Amino acid sequence: MSTTADLVTLLKTELKTCGVTYAALATRLGMAESSVKRMFSKSGDMPLSRIDEICRVLNLDFAELARRVADTQPLLMELTLAQEKAVVADRKLLIVAICVISQLPAEEILATYRFSEAELVKALTQLDRLGIIDLRPGNRYRLKVAKGFRWRPHGPVMEFFRKEVLDDYFAGGFDGESEMLMVVHGEIGRGLANSFRERLARIGQDFSNQHLADQKLPPDQRRPYTIVIGMRSWLMAALAEMQRREGA
User: Is the backbone of residue 59 left (phi > 0), alpha (psi -120 to 50) or beta?
Assistant: First the structure.
């Protein structure tokens, strides 16, 4: 969440950029310069009403200032358990969450899925309250999760996918246009395992970046694909059962 301290820090930057000194600001606000300095100090107290006055001096819209502060906040690498529980508890909210993480505009969500505009606005508002997006006018939003975001490995959302999605996904033949399924088993050095994992993560990110770049294409020139990338230190049961035991 954005704090008053973040707003004050940004105001300091704006004052410097505009060449407005504390003395000049004090004159405009009808305050003593010492009071202005104290207000901007780490131990100072600046009420929102005073922030609004300073914004007027700088010809800066308070809403824009708040958005800029929000843009400086660190992005989420994963959600909290409570956030995921809230998302997965409502099927429509989960669908919209998946859409916004893919950065689909509201217009495309409405055109693609059976949502009324009121239902979509309700879901977007919920995601805003959960801290997943920053909802803006016109149903635009800023995503508050990072590029490397992932659902919690043993969290509610991944549990939903394991129960309701994976069987359906792997039931396909993977023999359609541009489809493939590859299962590779082998033993490699532990140091190289991390290198392979990072390369696989880059493939996933490349796919995400291409998805965003191709949003400008007409819908009839796009086709949905889903990549599932996994890597575990694991041996399938059929092989494990045939392994020789020590001393056997």
Answer: left
Closest residue by Cα to residue 27 from 1, 62, 53? 53
Give the amino acid at 152. R
Contacts of 238 by beta carbon, 8 Å cutoff, 6+ apart: none
Domain edges within the chain: 4-71, 81-143, 172-237
- The architecture (CATH level 2) of 4-71 comes to Orthogonal Bundle (1.10)
Q: Which tokens sit at 206?
A: 């490349």
| Residues of the chain with confidence (pLDDT) below 50 | 1-2
Dist CA 67 CA 124 (whole Å):
17
CB atoms within 10 A of CB 8: 20
pLDDT at res. 67: 73
